[in-house]
Design a protein that fits this description.
By secondary structure, the chain is α/β, with parallel strands linked by helices. It folds into two domains: about 5-230, Aspartate Aminotransferase, domain 2 (3-Layer(aba) Sandwich); about 235-335, Aspartate Aminotransferase, domain 1, CATH 3.90.1150.10. Helix content is about 40%, strand content about 15%. The chain has a seven-stranded mixed beta sheet, sandwiched between helices. A four-stranded antiparallel beta sheet has the order 8-9-11-10, covered by helices on one side. Strand 2, helix 4 (about 75-85) and strand 3 (about 90-95) form a beta-alpha-beta unit. The longest helix is centred in the last third of the chain and has 25 residues, at about 235-260. The chain starts with a helix and ends in an 11-residue tail after the last helix. About 45% of the residues are buried.
């Protein structure tokens, strides 16, 4: 109700539950396009969340044997779908597995005339790290030299923290680029299942739209109406979300200082997540398992992300984050966190 307002609620109540359009409501595509510098409504395809956007793009642009350079670690489906298609995966690994800094010159060395697609995600999930705008432009130049496509997962864009500058959208920098985004992370509205593909390459959007004829066909109109209203108020909503995330990051910094012999934070530059190195005698997998049993608190071990067994992934978007830290503190002071794993 706060997002829609009185007039919006009336519009929603009077909206049709008939089939919608294959591309998505024009009103929603228009407000999304205004978030970019070079796009209009015809350059946006509405889908059921970013997961469908990733699936559709990869299924309609890749085939078995294609070479795909993929940032690692990265959101699972960005890599796994290409593997399922039968693509040859070339990993663009972080320079340092703990800090998750990525070297663009190394990416240039990995790409060649065989490269069909370059896949990356900034702000980075799960580390919250960023690259500079100049580095993003270098990636676009690399794609141009190789005549490769770009798939840029921008789920956490606009959630920059502190003095971090917002990166341009990849689709604004290159006609070879497709940007993926949604209202799930930045606006905290994952239940709407509204995501999109954004690109100046209409051919790619047309292929994606045709593929949907055989899958979900379209996205439900009522949720699109709510998403459009939320995006119109995105300045206010983003400000609230950034303040919450920043406050929780500051709590985490203080927590790690108070528990410096057991926890070390790699502070995020943007997004809702970061990596923490735990220094207990336990592996991260055992640490998370015991923490869940002892305090009913859930963290993700680095091993599930293909990373070091000393790392934990933290999320900073919840309003009850402080309560979680209290539970974690109790756990670190208990015997459960001190006993090594028995083999």
């Amino acid at each position: 109700a706060d997002v829609l307002g009185e007039q919006g609620l009336e519009t929603l109540c009077n909206s049709s539950l008939a089939y919608g359009t294959f591309s998505g409501l024009h009103d929603l595509r228009s407000v999304i396009a205004r978030q970019y510098e070079t796009l209009n409504a015809e350059d946006v395809l509405i889908v059921n969340g970013a997961s469908e956007a990733i699936e559709i793009f990869l299924r309609t642009n890749l085939q078995a044997g294609d070479e795909v350079v993929v940032q690692r670690p990265i959101f699972n489906s960005l890599r796994a779908t290409a593997e399922q298609i039968g693509c040859r995966i070339v990993d663009w690994d972080a320079d340092d597995p703990v800090t998750c800094r990525f070297c663009v010159p190394q990416l240039a060395d990995l790409c060649s005339e065989r490269t069909k697609l370059i896949v990356f995600n900034f702000p980075h999930n799960p580390s919250g790290q960023m690259i500079a705008e100049s580095e993003l432009r270098q990636i676009c130049d690399i794609a141009d030299r190789c005549e490769a496509m770009i798939l840029s997962d921008e789920q956490f864009r606009l959630l920059e923290l502190g003095s971090t500058q917002t990166l341009p959208a990849a689709c604004d920098l290159s006609e070879r680029a497709v940007s993926v985004c949604s209202v799930s992370k930045t606006l905290g509205m994952g239940g709407l299942r509204i995501g999109w593909l954004a690109t100046r390459c209409r051919e790619k959007l047309q292929r994606a739209k045709e593929y949907r004829y055989y899958t979900t066909e379209m996205t439900n109109p009522p949720c699109q109406l709510i998403a459009a209203a939320a995006i119109r108020k995105s300045h206010e909503l983003l400000s609230q979300n950034r303040q919450r995330i920043q406050a929780n990051v500051e709590r985490m910094v203080e927590f790690c200082l108070a528990h410096e012999t057991q926890m070390r934070l790699n502070p995020p530059a943007a997004g809702t997540m970061a990596l923490v190195e735990q220094k207990t005698p336990l592996s991260s997998t055992e640490f998370c398992s015991r923490l869940l049993d002892d305090q009913r608190l859930f963290l993700v071990p680095g091993t599930l992300l293909g990373m070091s067994d000393r790392l934990l992934r933290f999320g900073f978007g919840r309003e009850d984050f402080a309560d979680g830290l209290e539970r974690l503190s109790c756990f670190l002071q208990s015997s459960a966190a001190q006993l090594p794993t028995l083999h």
